[in-house]
Specification:
single chain; 209 residues; mainly alpha; Flavocytochrome B2, Chain A, domain 1; disordered C terminus; membrane; MAPR/NEUFC/NENF-like; transmembrane helix; PGRC2 protein; Cyt_B5-like_heme/steroid-bd
Length: 209
């Protein structure tokens, strides 16, 4: 206890209304600080949620509306196309099947060519993966790259990909096999195409079904 000079007694280490240790002024300040932190976190969470919703809306506007009348027409056209007979493709031949020069859409994954025409809302010219139409999509799928950096004009042997990326390529290949028709191989430079019999072609299509 000490005399503060005007006849009042005060506790050591505290002052009237001040932030002394254990003083009464500390509690309101601490409560205000805690409230500010909680309020700041809530504002941050609300802001992040708003950004996520905005991003989702923009994606819907970009891709959802694109698969409107034009996309529906392409899907309808795809449904009428006959099943493609087995054949092998060079890179140049594969590029013809990009959904613009030819209504059929093909792409290659890990040396295998798949007919993805029925998935034109994804792989068509206006789809989110349209850049892979008529091309070898292996590198882009392995590296999660959806721009031209993932495409090569020459045959891509994928030899520079690491083990994790190659495993990703194989997983994508399996997914395409389950969902789309396998129509042949992507030929290496100088490689001759195989000759497939109708019996081989029918047997493989039956397996996929």
């Amino acid at each position: 206890m000490a005399d503060d000079g005007d006849g009042r007694l005060r506790t050591e280490g505290s002052s009237d209304g001040g932030p002394g240790k254990g003083g009464e002024g500390e509690q309101p300040a601490g409560a205000a600080a805690a409230a500010a932190v909680v309020g700041g976190e809530m504002l941050l969470n609300v802001g992040l949620l708003a950004l996520a919703l905005l991003a989702a809306y923009r994606l819907y506007l970009r891709w959802g509306t694109r698969s409107g009348p034009g996309g529906a027409a392409r899907q309808s056209q795809a449904a009428t196309l006959p099943r493609m007979k087995r054949r092998d493709f060079s890179l140049e031949q594969l590029r013809e099947f990009d959904g613009t020069r030819n209504p059929r859409i093909l792409l290659a994954v890990n040396g295998k060519v798949f007919d993805v025409t029925k998935g034109s809302k994804f792989y068509g010219p206006e789809g989110p993966y349209g850049i892979f139409a008529g091309r070898d999509a292996s590198r882009g799928l392995a590296t999660f790259c959806l721009d031209k950096d993932a495409l090569k004009d020459e045959y891509d042997d994928l030899s520079d990909l690491n083990a994790v990326q190659m495993e990703s390529v194989r997983e994508w290949e399996m997914q395409f096999k389950e969902k789309y028709d396998y129509v042949g191989r992507l030929l290496k430079p100088g490689e001759e195409p195989s000759e497939y019999t109708d019996e081989e072609d029918t047997k493989d299509h039956t397996k996929q079904e």
